[in-house]
Structures are given as structure tokens and as C-alpha cells.
Amino acid sequence: MSGITYVRGDATVPSVKGVKVIAHVCNDIGGWGKGFVLAVSRRWPEPEAAYRAWHRDRAANDFALGAVQFVQVERHVWIANMVGQRGTRTGGKGVPVRYEAIDSALETLAGKAAELGASVHMPRIGCGLAGGKWSRVEPLVEERLVRRGIRVTVYDHGE
């Protein structure tokens, strides 16, 4: 029995009241242009601009695997850019997803969501272009968010 609510739809348009954090996984090389980020960028330019600046100035900030950047895009909507994948390609070193980085990012996300009194909305993070398995990510979401009483909705895009 999961404490996560699963729905069909677009995670960029959560239909609940109150403060919402839309969480997604980014790579650690500054790439933004495929996958869920395209839906984010169609609605708001700020998360991409913030992510690119964060990556560009990484020598002077906390940009790294496991880090999270929170970008407020509307009065009650925040985007969580979570660095949870190494590079963008599947190759000799396996898939880009880094479960330990996602776990660390979810811990930071939990603190921010609790501070804001927010619910969390996401696609199946780490499982698209990052190549991860939801069977590995779901328990991390349960442990870090649901057990702390944070409402989580996971969106499966499609008809």
C-alpha cells in the first residue's frame, strides 16, 4: 500500500489547492532540453534560466549530484531542480540515474515542502531519460516524503 497518489496527467498542472512543489531530476552537466524539462519550460522560463545559471556558476555554489535548486514560478508553485543523474548517456558505466543523489535531493525537498506546507508533484523521477527503475525510486519517495506526512502525487503522462 503506497502513500503516493498516482494519476494520469501533466505534473506541471497539479489540480490541488495550496502550495505545490513540482519536482524533477536534472543532470550534472548543465543539459536542459529533453524529457520533462520541456513541459516545465513551456509553462515557465525561470526554472531553466535558474538551472543554467546555477550550473554555469557551479565553482561558487552547491551545484552537484544530490543538490536541489528551488525556483518560485507562481505565488503557490515552486519547481525543484534536483540533480540526480550523471551525464545524459547510457554507456559503459550504465544508466545516468544516481539513486543516492535522488535520495539526498528528496531529503532536501522534504525539508522545503514541510517549511512551505506544500504538496509534492512529479513524474516518475529518474525513470525516463535517466534510465532508472521506479521500483528503486518509489521507496526513496516513500521514505523521504510520505513518511514525513508530505502528500505526493506522481503523474503518468499519456492518454
Question: In brief, what are we looking at here?
Answer:
With 159 residues, this protein is an alpha/beta fold.
Descriptive terms for the model:
159 residues; alpha/beta; six-stranded mixed beta sheet; 30% helix
Describe the structure.
By secondary structure, the chain is an alpha/beta fold. It is built from 4 helices and 6 strands, in the order ββααββαβαβ. It has a 6-stranded mixed β-sheet with strand order 1-6-5-2-4-3, with helices on both faces. A hairpin with a 2-residue loop joins β3 and β4. α3 packs parallel to α4. The longest helix is centred in the C-terminal third of the chain and has 18 residues. It is globular. The relative contact order is 0.24. The mean pLDDT is 95.
Count of individual beta strands: 6
The overall pLDDT average reads 95
- In terms of structural class, how would the helical and strand content be classed? alpha/beta
Broad shape: globular
Written as H for each helix and E for each strand, in order along the chain, the element string is: EEHHEEHEHE
- Largest β sheet strand count, sense and barrel closure: 6 strands, mixed
Poorly predicted spans: none
- How large, in whole angstroms, is the Cα Rg? 14 Å
- Total helices: the number is 4
User: Helix amount, in percent?
Assistant: 25-40%
- Content of β-strand: 15-25%
Within the largest sheet, what's the order of strands? 1-6-5-2-4-3
Cα(first) to Cα(last) distance is: 25 Å
Set down the secondary structure blueprint:
Elements: E1 4-8, E2 20-27, H1 36-43, H2 46-56, E3 68-74, E4 77-85, H3 99-116, E5 119-122, H4 134-144, E6 152-156
Parallel strand pairs: 1-6, 2-4, 2-5, 5-6
Antiparallel strand pairs: 3-4
